[in-house]
Backbone:
């Protein structure tokens, strides 16, 4: 059953990830910190780190419980990291579409050192967050993210 109101509510934290659709709740005890520990060497986000992030994030997203979610195409979050990303890449918009997100992501990849220098070293996880959101849009067929 795919209800039009099957909105994905998600929260991506350093220690855990959570996803809710209708009455389904998925909680994963591997968060962005785990992905970072597997991807980033010497606190530097480069192309290799992003490739590794994508690999680990795909492993998480392709895992059974997430794959089976029926999502209407809209995802919402109130994560501070999404607000920060929106300010960095999307003029602080509260709704970000898939194409717009992809443009922002490509800009990020082309200007990695510029963007990673825009945030404090302990805030680098917001880029892991960005990679996760992008992969979520691809693999879970999310068309729009709303920041609440």
Residues:
């Amino acid at each position: 059953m795919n209800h039009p109101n099957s909105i994905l509510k998600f929260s991506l934290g350093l220690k855990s990830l959570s996803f809710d659709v209708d009455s389904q709740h998925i909680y994963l005890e591997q968060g962005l910190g785990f992905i970072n520990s597997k991807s980033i060497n010497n606190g530097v986000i480069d192309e290799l780190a992003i490739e590794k992030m994508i690999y680990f994030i795909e492993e998480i997203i392709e895992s059974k419980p997430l794959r089976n979610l029926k999502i209407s195409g809209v995802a919402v979050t109130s994560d501070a990291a999404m607000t920060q990303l929106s300010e960095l890449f999307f003029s602080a918009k509260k709704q970000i579409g898939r194409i717009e997100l992809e443009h922002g992501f490509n800009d990020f990849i082309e200007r990695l050192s510029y963007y990673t220098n825009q945030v404090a070293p302990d805030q680098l996880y917001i880029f892991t967050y960005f990679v996760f959101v992008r992969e979520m849009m691809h693999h879970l067929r999310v068309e729009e993210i709303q920041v609440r």
Notes: The mean pLDDT is 92. Residues 8-147 form a domain with the Nucleotidyltransferase; domain 5 fold (CATH 3.30.420.150). The two ends are 26 Å apart (CA to CA). The helical segments are 32-39, 47-61, 64-67, 80-89, 98-110, 112-116, 125-139.
